[in-house]
Amino acid sequence: MGAQRACPPPPSILPSVERLVLFDIDCTLIDGHGAGGRAIMRAIKDVYGVEGELGDYSFHGRTDPGIVRDLADLWGAGDPEAILGRYEGETQPYVVHDLAERLGTPDDMLDALVDRCVARYVELISDEVGKVHIEVLPGVRELVTELAADRRVLVGLLTGNVTEGARIKLAPTGLYPLFRVAAYGSDSALRAELPAVAVARAEKLTGRRFAGKEVVVIGDTPADIECGAGLGVKTIAVATGRHSLDELAAHEPDYLFADMSDWRVVHEAILA
Ligand SMILES: [Mg+2]
User: Are 162 and 263 within one domain?
Assistant: First the structure.
């Protein structure tokens, strides 16, 4: 028997790092001109066999799995008849096995299909992204590039997008490699659980446990402002989505900007 390595090497310690900055993607970093929403609606039609109007439903601040579940529910996929209609053409063993698993509550049926629908979404998002110009919002390229080069800052993502969806949306911008840590909608359908995921990953990467206002969450919705409340994070809201300055102000972010065009001021707020 040869000697065995007792334990893995320790994580790299970066003593200069003092901020973990986590950006939302949609309407914070980029305007995808509806590509994500169209891919989700196509995936729901393919997997649940339902389609419908969005009504007042807002994608903003929600996670991809959460959106899939909400819309399928809204459009009647909770109805067993609608689910049965989707088995046309499938093998009997598949149908029996699938129904045996799913014919509990409508909630169980929906949950069982969410993974499949999200996988379909990932197939479709490339197609939808290819049809539009993914627009980097004002000041974002400068801010993220500056932060990524700053030894005091670890730059990351905190997004409702699933991992592959985030990569595909950001790929055309060239910014994706600058984000060294992330928490995605594929980590939890609940956005409020994502900050802790990002903090744990940042600690694994740097050996430093970021706490309180050392963690900065930047986003365009009340959900972005509120998701880190349990950890007491610093919040920076930007009115580049569908929420006005007044609406965002009501949720009391630490800082609030119309946009990030004056990116040096945002940079100061992050390090303040
Ligand atoms: Mg957003």
Answer: yes
Q: Is residue 64 domain-shared with residue 23, that is, in the same domain? A: no
Place of tokens 């490339």: 126
Whole-number pLDDT of residue 126: 95
Q: Please, what is the average pLDDT of the chain?
A: 82
**How close is the Cα of 238 to the center of ligand 1, in Å?**
9
pLDDT of 10 higher than 50: no
- Looking at the structure, tell me whether residues 68 and 186 fall in a common domain: no
- From residue 97, alpha-carbon distances to 10, 91, 211 in Å are 46, 10, 46
Ion ligand 1 nearby residues (CB, 5 A):
24, 26-27, 220
Rounded distance from Cα 226 to ligand 1 centre (Å): 13
In a domain, 254, yes or no: yes
Q: Quote the domain boundaries for residue 116.
A: 35-131
Q: Which residue has the higher pLDDT, 11 or 223?
A: 223
The whole model's pTM is what? Answer: 0.80
Q: Mean per-residue pLDDT for 239-263?
A: 96
Residue 225 contacts residue 233 (beta carbons within 8 Å)? no
